[in-house]
Amino acid sequence: MKKPKKSPKSRFSKSVIFSLVFLVLGFILSYSYSLSEAGKKSGEYTGGAFFEEEERYRGELISQQERNKALREEIQEKQAAVQEFEETFSGGENLSARLAEEAEALRRFTGAMPVEGEGLKVTLQDGEYDAESVNPNDYIVHESHVFQVINELYISGAQAISVNGQRIHGNSYIVCTGPVITVDGTQYPAPFTIEAIGKPDVLESSMELAGGVMDQLVNDNIIVTLDPGKKIEMPALLTES
Question: Where is the signal peptide (predicted)?
Fold first, then answer.
């Protein structure tokens, strides 16, 4: 059995259809190309170009973040240096103030400057005795008694001390000669007044400690009188030029 032959009209229809398909396809390709070119000219990016631009911005952002981190570290280092300098400067001021206080205290101790202020006055008197029945040396004030009082007052924070108005300094000497004592070459009879500039309550408390200096003096038959809160003035020591 023979196959029927296609008519010329059928072949013509297929040709027309293929022509239309290729025409539409060509138009689409042409239009897409035109859009691509137009996008490039107008500065718009698509596809690979867009991702490349995104990567570039990401790289710049990372670089800026690293730079910011380095700047923060540098700022922290500068702040630490400034803080160290401030602490050093403050320490220098404190050191200067402390040295000034120590220098003034030393001048007070050596008697190089006049001083005044509240303090404590300690009076030592010979005890009452019967010259015919006892040894009189057991009832008079000796240099050891004066030294006991002076040392206790210095330990308790006295800034300056005088005996019968004469300033005591680091090289002072006290010698007992019978009923009188000699302070740096000057003789003084009893009673002996020892004045100390400092905190009156502290100085008095130190003298009155149980078993302390005052109890020892009383046991040695010495009459002791404490007079705290007095305003005391002491001139500077005269030095040879």
Answer: none
